[in-house]
Amino acid sequence: xxxxxxxxxxxxxxxxxxxxxxxxxxxxxxxxxxxxxxxxxxxxxxxxxxxxxxxxxxxxxxxxxxxxxxxxxxxxxxxxxxxxxxxxxxxxxxxxxxxxxxxxxxxxxxxxxxxxxxxxxxxxxxxxxxxxxxxxxxxxxxxxxxxxxxxxxxxxxxxxxxxxxxxxxxxxxxxxxxxxxxxxxxxxxxxxxxxxxxxxxxxxxxxxxxxxxxxxxxxxxxxx
Length: 224
Hints:
The chain has twelve helices and five strands. The protein has helices spanning 15-27, 45-55, 65-68, 71-82, 99-102, 119-135, 139-152, 154-157, 160-174, 178-186, 192-200, 206-222; strands at residues 6-9, 32-33, 58-63, 86-91, 111-112.
């Protein structure tokens, strides 16, 4: 996958606005990653999105009432924060973030793209992205280069059947992202207990985290 500095997150009703924003930013000389344009045909879309977020240095969130209510947008923002990617919300409506999004969004990095016309707002966004990208540390590039070597150790540390069981349990709470969250966590964990705790940390609800941990423990006991 070609590395793009900016990942653009948006909800489906805002697709036209997101496309307009991407056109303006790329005309300024900053490459963006945006779905579905940059998804490889027949590829695993969840893996593609996770890799694109991890490779980006900034996530531009097209923020609106529909984005506020989108589980997919929340999951993408959560991933970006987890990966220490800067999240820059660009409000296209005068709305405030829901509680689930407010936790992840910094009030220091808000830009408004209203009222119309939006062109001056996009120009300000481009200037801001220039400054962010110039100052951003290159640590993510190093992480991307070393990720493959870490994943190769998964087979040595954990049985494939164990990883598959954890993936199925986690999918109950986070959906299709589970496969790739398990893969990434397995490259960091040194034992089953640490792996389960890392995966539990991907679940927002405390009650659901406890249910996940209990299900994993029961699964382990039944297979020993």
